[in-house]
Amino acid sequence: xxxxxxxxxxxxxxxxxxxxxxxxxxxxxxxxxxxxxxxxxxxxxxxxxxxxxxxxxxxxxxxxxxxxxxxxxxxxxxxxxxxxxxxxxxxxxxxxxxxxxxxxxxxxxxxxxxxxxxxxxxxxxxxxxxxxxxxxxxxxxxxxxxxxxxxxxxxxxxxxxxxxxxxxxxxxxxxxxxxxxxxxxxxxxxxxxxxxxxxxxxxxxxxxxxxxxxxxxxxxxxxxxx
Amino acid sequence: xxxxxxxxxxxxxxxxxxxxxxxxxxxxxxxxxxxxxxxxxxxxxxxxxxxxxxxxxxxxxxxxxxxxxxxxxxxxxxxxxxxxxxxxxxxxxxxxxxxxxxxxxxxxxxxxxxxxxxxxxxxxxxxxxxxxxxxxxxxxxxxxxxxxxxxxxxxxxxxxxxxxxxxxxxxxxxxxxxxxxxxxxxxxxxxxxxxxxxxxxxxxxxxxxxxxxxxxxxxx
Lengths: 226, 220
Fold this sequence. Notes:
heterodimer, A: 9 helices, elongated, B: mainly alpha, 9 helices
């Protein structure tokens, strides 16, 4: 068995483009996911049934349907209803929707971990809902939300590989492309596995570095997320 | 632009066959995952530092690469590298199983940390050999305490199985792709597939939560 890494080096511009698109998708989808997730979480913990129930349905649907099915559905359904967008946009929408449900659950877990006394005290002081949520509860969420939130962001980077199925030219698609040109599956797929690993490890190290300013331990406790 | 479910429902037989196949693949892969996870747990607690380092690297690699890429590597790289010609089924089961194993090991590690020190000391005081301490004393307790989490892991595995459609395994996703290529009704077929996935995953996860509640009740 002879490895032909020259074939990959010759097509490096395709790989670089793939890495760029993967990072681009992640950089757009993760912040959208966080913000939408925050909104869904507020709906989920609200006392109004009309707000709470749609949020529950949304979260349960997104958590129990595989992302690939969601991606295919969006890819076929959007043109079906006359919305013409590129595969990249469809992919970013899907990934954000998918991530937002998980982020919502993480935020809810955080809000529930903040002690009840904080809510009671804020209300006893006569603070308005919006004010105490923003100024009292939100700052305390950080330590509870950070480690699982990092894991979900990591998951989203990895799940972006599924967008290759709807011909978004990200890293996995680039690998298929190179494989189709040079027929070197072992080398290409091994290479992109390493690239993904480097991206994810760097992201994790960066996140841990940011976190260590506030709380140095427990970032490895919640690895069960995917 | 109406959805026309009546057109596809009479033809949806393959979808249900695919769903059964998905569950079957999920169960087998989960079994592989539990075996690999147990192996990793034992290796992590082994005397040899080389094995401990291997577990660390393995976990990092599984966590740091997408499941899709792992499946592709298994399918395309294993045959040329080892010379063994494995079919898509074996490759898929192994890829998903080895992926799941890293997460199962993590779950088991959590269960292991809850085993009280007295159990180890009692087993040692009784003069049990090492393998009996593990397989007769510690592991049964670990598995007993993590069963709800393992059920949850099973839903995770079910949610990875759509990726196996890329390596031509005819499970639910592949079956629905074949159906909408035939009927030209992708939205309806995919909605139906999504519904089936939802029913499978939701009922399993509710079952897991039920087990969790029950185990908490018994622990108090």
